[in-house]
Amino acid sequence: MCGIISIKGKNAIRKTISGLKKLEYRGYDSCGIAWKNKKLNIKKSKGYISILEEKVKNIKSELTIGHTRWATHGVPSELNSHPHVSMDGKFMCVHNGIIENYKELKKQFLQGYEFYSDTDTEVIPNLVSKFYKDLVNCNPSCCNRRRNSKYSGECYGSKCKCASYCDDILTAFKMAIDQLKGSFAIVLINDYNDKIYFARHSSPMVISKTKDMIICSDINGLDDKSNTFYLPDDTYGVLDNDFEVFDTNSKPIAIKYSNYKGGIENKLSGYKHYMLKEIYEIPNAIELTKDALYGASLTLPKNISQILFVSCGTSYHASLMAKKYIENFAHIPCECVIASEFISSNNLILPNTLGVFISQSGETADTLKSLEKAKSQGVYTLAITNVQNSHITLIADTTVLMRAGAEICVASTKAYTTQLFVLLQLTNYLIGLQQGNFRIISEKIQSKKQDKVSEGEISKANTCVGATELVEVLSKQDCLGISSDDIANLTGLDISTIDKQLDNLVDKIYLHKQFHLIGKDYDYITAMEGSLKIKEISYIFTDAYPCGELKHGTLSLIDENSIVFVIMTERDLIAKTTNAIHEITSRGGNVVCITQFDDIDLSDCYYVIHLPKLNQLFMPIVSIIPFHLISYKITTKLGLNPDKPRNLAKSVTVE
Ligand code: F6R
Asked: What is the pLDDT of residue 472?
């Protein structure tokens, strides 16, 4: 988690602050900046970047490291915020990730060192400082290490013969990172020279070379996204007017730049909060995604026996919905696993499994790690993400991009609904695949019609479990019974018709301490996602159950103070869902029913929210919107910031 930006160039402080603001979605509980003006300086603050900005507004420098934090070790405070400084004040660093062995490192190498923070990070500048001192004092054991390193040479301490080409700080930095266990993206500056040292292991970073040299935890922190180099995993290096990157054996790595256009639109466009803006953008987000998907083809293995979905949070809920779509209509068995669980369990992977990894940001550490694990087990992997060039797209075998536009609010709204739309299209493709509506890629290559596919894709296919052939699924026609009018109704949805029904309800319930949400089948998944949305931003306790589960426990909580949201969008399930409503109302509970049906008696309900009537397959996309809006309205009524809920961040880049 956390955001890093480090700049070598003119007006580096102002640019670092501006970059940190763009990275605030990765964490925003505290922040800090260190810069060099002959000497090293540092300023930190608890809270948003704007507070830090005030503290450094008239200062100029051409060398910085900056950090916005999401606390893992130690409370959010100035002391715990980055950059962290070595005891001798000579090294300063920022870090994303977690150093798992920091206590052992303190005991093994840093006896007698004083630490001022509760963080794991503080060991890093101290280790570099210690190893650097060892090197310049020419401790014989260090000479050995040094001989083994890229910068080998005979060492005579400060009279070192190799002083002209030997970068002791780079050697000390490498010695320090060799000791670290866990995950890290690290950037370090020092008092001795004006270089920037960096390293990464399981935590992404990019380097941008334009008129400034910039290192950043992701591309969203950069204004100019041309000429960016994605630092490969397990590398380290040094940056001055240019930069060098090495692998763990200190072999230089070739630099390959990418050019990326687009980025986060940081504008509220008249809305009070990004969350509200993004909810109102749902129809447009779906329309843009539809335009990009229609007529597109997708490369998948032939003969898929099972689909394994791996994702987190809201994206996991989208995968649960996909399981229903695919099992009901494409008849392929699906399994949905939460990414952090996938990493730590032994999963039985069947031959011909397609792995689908859903991530709005494309940067979620648990999902990326799972993807790597699945690939190492021979699974052909498909990423579904909203962010072009995000890390997931670099690792997965193939990618489908959603076009929801930047989602800045921490709580996912338009991205979730767009994910559902993409997953419906995936179902359509899979039906097309079964109907033989595909082209074998090897044939395409042989007939020299090669465009988007490469020989590499064929060899990729051969490495996947049982997937001996990759095919290009050409299903342009509709296999799900969705007409163009249905699509037009969805993309033309007027969010305000839902919005205007909610103020009266929110006025009555916003001070409640807990809510229950129930539904059956697809509606149960909407209940789970609605529950996550409310608790995430309003801090009110919520839970979600299938209707039939109430009587197996939770019904004991129901009394005349209870508010239970009941989602009812499937006609076949009306009888069973209304049973659940009666079970609640007969115990005095208050039911808020969300439905598109107006031909059933809901007079027992405390409140009814009427949904627009759309094609049944789109109802999960529509029925979540009242929860987006209710969460938003309750949160703002409680005086909280819906865009930046406490303790959370938009992009969860730590495991
Ligand atoms: C909830 C929310 C999170 C994310 C989760 C995964 O509103 O946004 O639960 O869904 O952190 O993030 P991505 O989809 O970026 O991998």
From this structure: 82
